[in-house]
Amino acid sequence: MAYNIVTIAGSLRKDSFSLKIANALAKLAPASLKLEVITPAGISFFSQDLEAAPPADWLAFREKLKTSNGVLFVTPEYNRSIPGVLKNAIDVASRPYGKSSFLGKPVGIISNSPGLLGGVSAAKHLQNILPGISGPVLQQPEIYLSSVGDAFDADGNLTKDSLKTVLQQYIDAFAAHVAKNQG
């Protein structure tokens, strides 16, 4: 049996590095994981005023998470944090209070950047946000992917061997994390 993992690429850009990385991970995942790659596109803005009658897009997103066996975040860094659309998706899924759709789900965090710092600030912000609304966050290995701008061909295929090696190590560790933390 394969564990179903919702893999959230945190950018809306059609050719985002986060989406390319998420798709590469889906190809590299061991047989024990089935990654469904999504983006925050179509998730309407969170407002507590809507909690009594949540929009259909909120309900669908929450259900997707609730029926998964884990969540993997692949995020770029925008202004030393996560993109606003990703934070909005987290806010939508973590509500109503005490009923987070992430509760009990093993979580992984991958940040990336075409620059040298690899989105480390974005990853650290997710590490601050997720405890208390999610299940256990994979602590090791940490992964901040730098210089990803030349890692893919025109069709979005991963071509950088050094990145492939790092992603393989991470997805294998994440698979073990998910298996260890299933109820």
UniProtKB/TrEMBL annotation:
Domain of life (superkingdom): Bacteria
Transmembrane region(s): none
Pfam family, one: FMN_red
InterPro entries: Flavoprotein-like_sf, FMN_Rdtase-like_dom, NAD(P)H-dep_reductase
Residues annotated as domain NADPH-dependent FMN reductase-like: 4-146
Name of the molecule in the record: Chromate reductase
